[in-house]
Amino acid sequence: MELTQLRYFAAVAELQHVTRAAERMHVAQPAITKSIHRLEDELGIPLVASRGRNIVLTDYGRALYGMLREPLSALDQIPEQMRQLAQRSACTLHINVLAASRAVTDAVIAYKHDHSEILFSIMQNELTQICDLSVDTLTELPAVSHQVDNSVSFREPILLAVPSASLYSRLSSIDLKELKEEGFICLAGNRKFRKICDQFCQAAGFQPKIIFESDSPATVRNLIGAGSGIGFWPEHTWGAIGEDVKLIPIASPQCARELRISLHPQDSARTALIHPFYHYLIHYFEALFEA
Question: ω before 30 within 30° of 0 (cis)?
């Protein structure tokens, strides 16, 4: 069965008239008649019967028409649905957020305030570069921060977060090696930030004693504030720490991460959509790091 045959038959079945069906489908009447005869031959059953100048559906014809109405209606809607999808895609920015999700989310909210027509699709997928731009962190800190094409980097200090009631909160700085017996509250082990912090501890000569881990920085902060342990905290991108937690600079080893905002050009036609937000995000981070 061909789709055209089924459409011709559905038109005849609805109108109960071959000539009017031919006019609707913009074809000659013999084309409609031949198409239905071929369909009947293929199915091996009669679908229509003549009644004077008109036609009527057989029981088989009524059954087939009942089966066809919904799927043909769905097919008719496809062009409009695809047009809407294309329009939506043309104004949707796809961002792969692998680090600093709090800061990126705040930037998106601020940007949409003045660009309500722009839509955002945010993913977290380390295995893909099929996106308009990404925000990521390097698991190894380069000796010198540098920029490459379609990419801008920010070096963010990592501080020690301790309960405000802790004796550590009185210090102006601390060596990480002094904390080898302390219990750490961390992000889950599959997160890049966790891997970076584990490397800091290894550089200080110990494996961190993990007493709790979570996928949520807010949970980490709340547990530290409750006096359950200590942890690491990026200076700029995780937001305010609260009065029940104190941030202490780490004197040794050097504790920082490199955040990288990168363009992933897929289609030059989308440049006018992507580049304004890319530059906005860079300026947003610059202001965040200077605050």
Answer: no
- CA 94 → CA 9, 155, 237, distances in Å? 44, 24, 20
- Give the pLDDT confidence of 201-246 residue by residue, as tens digits: 999 999 999 999 998 999 999 999 999 999 999 999 998 888 999 9
Distance between CA atoms of residues 102 and 277, nearest Å: 17
Question: How does pLDDT run across 126-181, given as a tens digit for each residue?
Answer: 888 789 999 999 877 665 555 567 899 999 999 999 999 999 999 999 999 999 99
How far, in Å, CA of 19 to CA of 21, rounded?
Answer: 5
Q: Cα-Cα-Cα-Cα dihedral of 112, 277, 240, 289, to 10°?
A: -150
- Asked if 262 and 151 touch (Cβ cutoff 8 Å), the reply is yes
Cβ of 36: how many Cβ atoms within 10 Å?
Answer: 22
Q: Tokens 């009631």 label which residue?
A: 165
Top pLDDT among 147 and 3 is at 3
Length of the chain: 291
Q: How many Å apart are CA 265 and CA 267, to the nearest integer?
A: 6
Task: Return the exposure string of 212-230: e unless at least 16 CB atoms fall within 10 Å of the residue's CB, then b.
Answer: ebbeebeebbbbbbeeebb
**Vertex 236: Cα angle to 193 and 273 (nearest 5):** 90
Measured distance CA(146)–CA(181) in Å, rounded: 36
SS (H, E, C) 142-177: CCCCCCECCEEEEEEEEEEEEECCCHHHHCCCEEHH
